[in-house]
Design the sequence.
């Protein structure tokens, strides 16, 4: 899974029918550098069903894990190789990172 | 999935039989540095072209969304039954041709 920040949204009229109605978010990958989360430079497009918005910290899951977000079983027809699987409370998450490091 | 610009086309005469009629494109993934030039991010590599299958008819210069793996294979078999497994030997494909995208890299609304 990948930690990222929502930076935008993509719209497409010409698309595979199995993407009909899908909300597609642009998400910038993040990594820890010292006590900060900084962009990795990578940007991914993930399907969202949780209502994530610009600036939200999210976790993106890949592959069959992403299809399970939309259908827990019998999901071979789902067209998604990346999906938002949680929206993070940034403060709580950052506290956890700092605690892992032994505090500030 | 990722956002990319179509930069070229690939032709081949010798190929897996059931890839007849499937077009192959070269795309270049967008990096954060392309989308947000003023933002402090690592520079993008120019050596990361990806070959992808396309049945939607994307052309050079268009922006597309690419899916990897199973989702890519599903995307190039439009008549696939609900729970059938795709059979074409492909691991990346165009799933959408982008109309527009909206970027707020600093979390502020730019529009």
Sequence:
């Amino acid at each position: 899974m990948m930690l990222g920040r929502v930076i935008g949204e993509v719209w497409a009229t010409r698309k595979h029918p199995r993407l009909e109605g899908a909300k597609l978010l642009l998400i910038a990958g993040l990594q820890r550098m010292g006590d900060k989360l900084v962009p990795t430079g990578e940007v991914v497009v993930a399907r969202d069903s949780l209502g994530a918005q610009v600036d939200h910290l999210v976790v993106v899951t890949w592959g069959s894990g992403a299809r399970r977000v939309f259908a827990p079983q019998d999901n071979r027809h789902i067209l998604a190789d990346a999906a938002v699987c949680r929206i993070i409370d940034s403060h709580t998450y950052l506290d956890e990172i700092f605690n892992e490091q032994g505090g500030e | 999935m990722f956002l990319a610009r179509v930069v070229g086309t690939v032709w081949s005469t010798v190929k897996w039989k059931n890839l007849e009629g499937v077009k192959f494109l070269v795309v270049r993934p967008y990096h954060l540095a392309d989308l947000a030039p003023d933002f402090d991010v690592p520079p993008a590599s120019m050596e990361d072209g990806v070959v992808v299958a396309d049945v939607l008819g994307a052309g050079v210069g268009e922006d597309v969304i690419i899916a990897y793996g199973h989702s890519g294979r599903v995307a190039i078999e439009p008549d696939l039954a609900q729970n059938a497994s795709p059979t074409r030997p492909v691991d990346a494909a165009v799933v959408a041709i982008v109309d527009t995208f909206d970027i707020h890299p600093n979390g502020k609304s730019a529009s």
Observations:
- Residues 2-97 of chain B form a domain with the OB fold (Dihydrolipoamide Acetyltransferase, E2P) fold (CATH 2.40.50.220).
- Chain B has a mean pLDDT of 86.
- Chain B touches chain A at residues 1-3, 29-33, 35-36, 39, 41-44, 56-57, 65, 67-72, 74-75, 78, 80, 82-85, 95-105, 107, 109 (CB under 8 Å).
